[in-house]
Amino acid sequence: MANLSDSEIEKLFSGAPQYFARSEGHFTGAPHPSVAFPWDEQLEIRDLTDHTQIEDRAWSCVTAWPHITRDVQPDRSSAQKMTAAKRRAHFYPRCRERPGMLSMAGLEKGSVGYQAALELGVSDALQEEQFGFESLGSKSHVIVEQRQRMLTSRDGLRHLDDHAILEQLIKNGRRYSETHLGDRRESSELYNELFLHILHPPVKVLDHQNPYSLSVQIQSIVKVLAAPNMWIDFSHVEWRIRLGQLLWGAENEIETADNASVRSANSAVDLHEERYWLLLQILLASELLIRLDAITEGDELGIENIRPAEVHKFEKEANRSVKWSLHLARAWLENIEVVRAEKQNLKEDEKPAGWLATLTKRMSLSHESSNHSNHSNHHIFNHPTYVYAIKGRHCERQVDGLKHFARQLKWPDIDSYAARISENCRALTTGTPLDTPLATPASNRSSYFGDSKADHRSKPSKPSRRRQIQAALNPSGWLSKSYVSGLMLPGEALCHLLMSTLLENDQEAMARLGPMANLCGGFMYSGKSFWSTACVVGRVLAAGKGSAECMGWISSDITPQTLGDGWVNIEVDNVPEDAEHINKKARLWFKAAIEKESNVLGDADSSMVLPADFIIPYENVYAQPPPTLWIDFQSLNLYAPVDSVHTTPTEEAATPFSETSQATKAPEIRTYPAALDFKVTSEDQLGNTEEKEYTFALARDVYFVTAHPCVPSQHVKIMKSATSPTIQQVDLSGHGGGGKTASVIGHPLHKYYTYLPIHLSDLLTKRDLTLEALLANYPTTGHRPSLTPAPGHAGARVLVIDCITGFQPLPQEHEIPLSPTVSRTSSLSISGDEPPATPATPTTTTPGFETAGKKMHHETRRRQFGSDMEVLVRALCAEKGWNALISRRRRGCLACAIREAGALAWKVVIRVD
């Protein structure tokens, strides 16, 4: 056979995703994983994704990646205003959350996408803690000395009181809303404003050609913001979550109840001081961002000239902490408004009307203490005339997003819940003077995020991808205020804050669940269970019929039989391979291996590619037809708590910040091993039936990835030939069937990729075998028909679990007939140079596949998928410790899923109908 030309290869793999990992530039950290269709120009193909879109503008802050929000109930006028505001060029720092939150919600419920799967090994949660991170108020002496040094340096910070900071934030808010570059101040005016009021001028000339340029100002601000051991480093996940605690947390909400890594602020002095330094950090970052936006907009309009050397210098000096401060500045300028009012116009005895009203509270940064000089490097003075409030600009939008979240999760009694939310929102907009709420007895517990007690009992010797986050809920606490204000940073924080706000506004739920929450675990409430996607139980139960997923949370009708309402933590071990491959050893750093081990040409030389080197991967082909299976889920079991030595609620000691001196009691969140029970009935070809019961322990913290969608090439013609044992076993009629034929047509697979298909019933009988033992049973000619045996492979690379044959399929809305482009003439051929016309309707597509044009329709049907069989196979993977791809027919072909497994270095593909 003649070698395939480049043009023929491109036609052969049209519509096949290709997997990459490429660096975005210097000083940007780990490479960026991506999926592309380099040989396709049709938007219907290039826009295919393996994850869902963000469904509400209120959740847009979850990612720093550019994205389009698919609003379920769009407000056209508001959307038009936002679109107009976005037309201006903006500066986007090349620093984003890891894993990318867009990819954390795969098309399959409880799964992630390709990008997130690779970034889990380099996630932000794995970063080492910031020096001095352990305290809000009791700072390390290094931080104290650094702040003193910066305030006394000749080119450091000027003295700023709280009044000056807030006044400048008001001015920056107005400046940010300007729509035209011509309305902005000249760079000389910005220079004078910066160096006469905020910073000392540079001690040496930074730009001899234009010493007052925006570039000079940017360099000076970056130098201050990049100073170590001085500012809060929001590259750490916990600080992103606790941002609202510094702004809205009361003194008694800063305490901790255990020996976790975060200690309490010593007094109101410490809290006020940290709040001051946070606002100063926001001010400097907003000054920097406004200047970067001005340069970006000027470059876009052709009136600014950015030298490459300046770009390189900025990327080098602006470390991760600076770039995350820019994310904070953007979130502040877009969502927060600082309001100034005269003191005499406020009545001190007026109280807020509703918990949402406490969002906009008076910002009094001043405090009186005779020992203040011993605790602070900077005196803060109260302005005699004005008082300031920080207000959310989009509270209505955030409340609508909260109601959307509740509906998606099928929250109990959602109709009355939505009504209560609306009432609170109206109370917020009445303009009632606001004040700091009094603490409630329920808030006398720690209101912070940190490692759970269960995690402290067996601290792993190596970093773990698992997080255990506890928080104390408070009906008027900073968690709800953080969400409703919209002041949130990219990453997992939004998922935690959404659930916290949902619970804090449901009095019945708070009463039945208690004030302590484990936001990486789960809870039972009102006959349903709710699980974080950070918990393996949630990722497994998500495959069941009737489950729902929204913004990092799973709801299910499955509840453990022995437990009532309450929070639980799940005992689970790391997958050994995952624990070994994190940070610098993560798969993502091996860019060449990722692309090589997923290449459409396998290990072939691109100049020597033969048609005989490819097969069409088969499924549903067995010498002896497998039995028909009926799988019935029985129960979710949570066994005796791992920490059952404590059998009664613990008593908390009184703390200096408690409202009363009496100790409070609260139930402890227990840690349980989890397992699922199933009943499996099988019937062989002779009609004999057998019933067995299986229990799968959810012992390993496995992840599932949605195999990326693909579109079969319309250029390829497949034929029946005596020389092709693969094609002999493929039914080209499009009707499918059991036995020795099956309806499988997709992209070709190179002989480099060896795989072992195994039916789920066969896998259950070999349950005790390891994955390596199963793959070692790979026979070259028996299970993988090919014209040319793959050399040098003692075993298969990938295990393909057949969850299609012999199972009752879900009803489909449309049957797609055989495409007229499929031929039955001779071996493997490629059609002419001209691509075929784009099909007008789904009825002209290749059998067994869903067209790219039906992508949006498929997304709306996402929650209709699910079965006990899919729960069982996920539970089996969790017991064995197998990370797995989920490849669904009509969405993607088996060949592309096997190649994606090669990119991820995973060894299991679950093929479902």
UniProtKB/TrEMBL annotation:
Region (Disordered): 430-467, 814-862
Compositionally biased residues, Polar residues: 820-830
Record-given protein name: Uncharacterized protein
